[in-house]
C-alpha cells in the first residue's frame, strides 16, 4: 500500500545524539562520543529527491542518558514543526532507548503527519556505518502519504515498525530491531515506502503530560521468587510497578500473595517476560495464574511488552489517572490490533 503526495515534501529532522552522531579522535576509532549535529548527519545523506529537509539539534547525548524532559521537548518541537508546515518529522537518537522513547512519543502524538524515530548501531566513522541509510529511509518514510495517521514509527535497516511493538532484540549488529509478534508495518525500497495494511492505532492520550519523573519500577520474576523484592519496592513508595511474569502472565504463589497486598495501594501491571506474545485472561486458574492475578487486583498488559507497559503506566499515573482508567487503557492499548 504505497501512496504518493505532491512535490515537494517538507521534512524536519531533529537530533538528540546517540551512536549515529558519535565519532572518535583516536586512530583505532574506539572511545566514540556524541559529537555530530543534525546538519552534520544530513550532509552524509545523498540527495533525497522531492524532499526539502531542515535540521535542528536538540541535544547531543547517548540514548541511555535521555530523560523525560528531553522527550517532552521533542514532542513540542515535532508538533511545532508540523504546525509550521512540515509533512513529517524525523527524530534521531541513541538506539539503547528507542523502544521506550518512541512509545512514549506515540502515546501523545496527535498529528496525522508521521513522526519517525531512527538511529544507528554503528558509529559514524565505523566501517559500514548504517546511520546515513537509516536517516535516508526515515526521511523517505516521513514524507510518505502512506505513513500518515500511523502515529510514531521506528525506521532502521529499511524496515518500518510501530512504536508500540518494536524491540531491540540483540545488543549489537546492524539489524537488531524487530516487532516479534506481528512483524514490521512496511519496508523502504527504491526510494519509497510500502505498507502491508491500513493504519491501526488507538487514539493518543488526551490527559495532561507527565510533569516529572515517577518511580515506576520494572521487576522481572524468577524461579523461586517469593515476593520479597516487590515488598522492597513497595516500601520505597513507588507510584506503581510492572512485573515481567512467566509465560502468559504467571507468577509464583508467594509473589501473587504480595501482589494482592500491594495492589490495594498502587497499580500492579503484569506483562510477559518472553519477548513476544500476549498475557492471557482466563485459560489458567491456579494461584498465580493470569485469572487469579486479575482477581487479586493486578492489571494484565496484553500485547504490550514490559518496557512499553512501564511507559504507559508512568504516563497514566503522571496525568493523575485513577485505577479504572489505568485498567481501561491497558485493555485498549494492549489489545492485538493496537499499534500493529
UniProtKB/TrEMBL annotation:
The keyword Zinc-finger does not apply. Keywords: Hydrolase. Residues 10-196 form the L-asparaginase N-terminal domain. Pfam families: Asparaginase (PF00710), Asparaginase_C (PF17763). SMART domains: Asparaginase. It comes from the Bacteria. Signal peptide: none annotated. Residues 216-328 form the Asparaginase/glutaminase C-terminal domain. PANTHER family: 60 KDA LYSOPHOSPHOLIPASE, L-ASPARAGINASE. Belongs to the asparaginase 1 family. This is Asparaginase. It comes from Microlunatus spumicola. The lineage of its organism: Bacteria, Bacillati, Actinomycetota, Actinomycetes, Propionibacteriales.
